[in-house]
Amino acid sequence: MFSTLLHTALYEDINKELALRILEESRSPKNALELFAAASILRDKTLGKELSFSAGFAGVLPCRIVPRCNYCTYFVTEPFPLPDLLTCVKKVEELGIQQLHLSGGSNLEGYDTEILEMVRGIHDVSDIQVEVNLGPSLSADTVKGLKEMKVVSITSSLETFNPELFNRTKPGDSLEKRKQLLETCEQEGVPIRSMMMVGLGESYADRIEHLFYLSQFSHLYHLRFSRFYPFSRTVLRNRPRCSPWELARTLAVARLIMPRVNLGLAAGNNLDDLPLWYAAGGGNQLLGVMVSRKDAETNPEEEVTVINKTCFIRNRIPAVQRYLQEMGAVTSGYSK
Fold it and tell me: Taking Cα atoms as reference points, which of 198, 200, 215 lies closest to residue 251?
């Protein structure tokens, strides 16, 4: 019976009802493994088998969302000094990385001038391709300006599509402004990245509504999945950790809905999540290098470059490549 559901999704059509049923019935390992196999084959057919690396720059601008989101610890209070950021860009380029994304924080009043200056500064010293992730901080004019500067993509992460849950866990944020940014990027023909948090308290039906909403955007090229983690200093510190099984099954269903979209991992995941991500149809872009303003415990296989006491480059590529080789996965190197 489950095989029939998958066959319909793959070769006829997938709608919300069918997607929800597949997600619900994939709880059992037997069905989940069948789902993963179908999603992986679909990924290989549509995106190919080669995986590539990009770099992430975290905390490039302060988060002005008040009150803070109930689960987040990634905010900073000061901008990333441009000279330090440009030094990191050059170091990342030396590692062979060809694409980076600038992340956080958000400002409902706008970060238009700041991000344009930052991207312009990067272009002055490097040919690396840039993606921007500042939440609902960009005006329509800034989206147009970033398009003219040939920014590779703009991110608008909804996290959750359930309005009540969004307002309860992100009381200072705006779901409507985040959706508006998606619509502006679509209208301007700018490639879109988004993120979905799994395990925040949403229902299976909420996840399916979220995925189908995103699938309407023809310029969506990358959707990343966060796995909820109860950080100790947050309001949601007592909420249970999201299971990797929940994320993998949701991602596999997403692959059936949006076969040509890159499906990646975001906050709350680690290297140990890679095998299940890949098995469930994840791909084809990986975060290989992380630039952070906070020192953090690292994997012994990671190579850390200390720029100064508040600026660190973590090269995870050796560790990630080992995991991928053990899975028989192929890396083409670095994002184009």
Answer: 198
- Rounded to the nearest 5 percent, the helix, strand and coil shares of the chain are 40, 20, 40
Instruction: Average the pLDDT over 140-146 and give the result.
Output: 98
Q: Which of 159, 164, 161 is nearest to 74 (CA)?
A: 159
DSSP β-bridge partners for residue 263: 223, 283
Residue 83 has pLDDT above 90, yes or no: yes
Instruction: Reply yes or no on domain 2-334 having CATH 3.20.20.70.
Output: yes
291 CB neighbour count, 10 Å cutoff: 27
Contact 60, 291 (CB under 8 A): no
For residue 336, is pLDDT > 60? Answer: no
User: Taking the domains of the chain in order of start, what are their residue ranges?
Assistant: 2-334
Q: What is the pLDDT of residues 265-303, one digit of tens each?
A: 999 999 999 999 999 999 999 999 999 988 766 778 889
**Over the range 220-256, which residues count as b (16 or more CB within 10 Å of their CB) and which as e?**
bbbbbbbbbbbeeebbbeebeebebebbbbbbbbbbb
Residue labelled with tokens 């290098």: 289
Angstrom CA distances, 214 to 78, 132, 258, stand at 32, 18, 9
Cα 123 from Cα 126, distance rounded (Å):
5
Give mean pLDDT, residues 232-257: 98
Tell which residue, 255, 259, 262, 228, has the closest CA to residue 131.
262
Q: Are 33 and 10 in contact (CB under 8 A)?
A: no
Give the C-alpha separation, 76 to 109, whole Å.
17
Considering the entire predicted model, what is its pTM?
Answer: 0.95
- How many residues are given for the chain? 336
Using the Cα atoms of residue 155, residue 159, residue 164 and residue 167 in order, give the sign of their dihedral. Answer: negative
How far apart CA 120 and CA 137 sit, in angstroms, is 17
